[in-house]
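>> received
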Amino acid sequence: MELSSPVVRTEDIYKTYWLYWRLLGVESRQPILYALDILITIFVTFWYPIHLIAGLFFESRLGDVCKGLPITAACFFASFKFVCFRWKLQEIKDIEALLLELDQRALTEQERAYFDRNTQREANFVWKSFIVAYGLSNAAAIASVLFGKGHKLLYPAWFPYDVQATEQIYWLSVAYQIAGVSIQIVQNLANDSYPPMTFCVVAGHVRLLSMRLSRMGYERKSAKQTVVRELVENIEDHRKLMKIVELLRSTMHLSQLGQFISSGINISITLVNILFFAENNFAMTYYGVYFVAMLLELFPCCYYGTLISVELNRLTDSIFSSNWVGMERGYCRTLLIFMQLTLAKVEIRAGGMIGISLNAFFATIRMAYSFFTLAMSLRK
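>> returned
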């Protein structure tokens, strides 16, 4: 009988992700895109955060430093995360290859329907929400310059020449900042959409494995040899999932540590800017949108990191729920060993210290609030 739900295809979820890399000139053998990659690496990935950091040292007022600090930290850590992910690009490909193998195991209508209505829909929502949030943040920043008073740069920065010398030089400098931050946003889309999107897909595949485990032995027509084969195949699926988790630990080790530090700095400083240094409605709108973007940047990754742990913890119950009564002693012994393996706590840590979970998200919020109250006390 033909199944009504579409075939599970993880590669469809990652199409936009790989598009980001191609737009940045990575993963392409064409000479033009290779040259583009070199230009972006020099003038955006490395020089853009440097010219923002240098600009902060030339600011004499605390308000101007606070205004420039969020975007400076965001651009610095965007470049840091981009370099980390590019360094681990082969591991990212290995993870996707394993996910594609797990796709082939989703054969029933129930599994395909769950993946289509839950996992795929949520993963697509994640990367779309990042595009909307970062796009609005960039638009608000540009509007604050175009409609603001005086000739001000998009962000406080240092240039090796007088920006205000002529009208043409000023607008060229602004154009560089707009182009640079737009490219950095594309880099950040690649950086920040990957962890929650992948965590969502992995959690979905763990749920599909749970369905297959709890179903073992209940089909009346299945011979004992068939049930044994199903158990072996499910154990192999679990091994692949643990391999993915191990690769994710390596891939996220440094990048997500930078993410937590960046989010803590940005959330706290943005709150200070909203309350004390926003000069007009456009600036207020920009900082408000930027604040929401920072929360969005961190929350999905922590949520789906927790979801992976929850789904993996359910595997033991799913194994016990299978129909093992009446099976041979060797089968039951293997089942028991498998259950013991699934009891191990699985957690992905950033920097080997911070568990990527909702606990870390709320800890970051508390840290940002503590920084905010400190800034309030210093102001008084």
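>> The mean pLDDT is 86.
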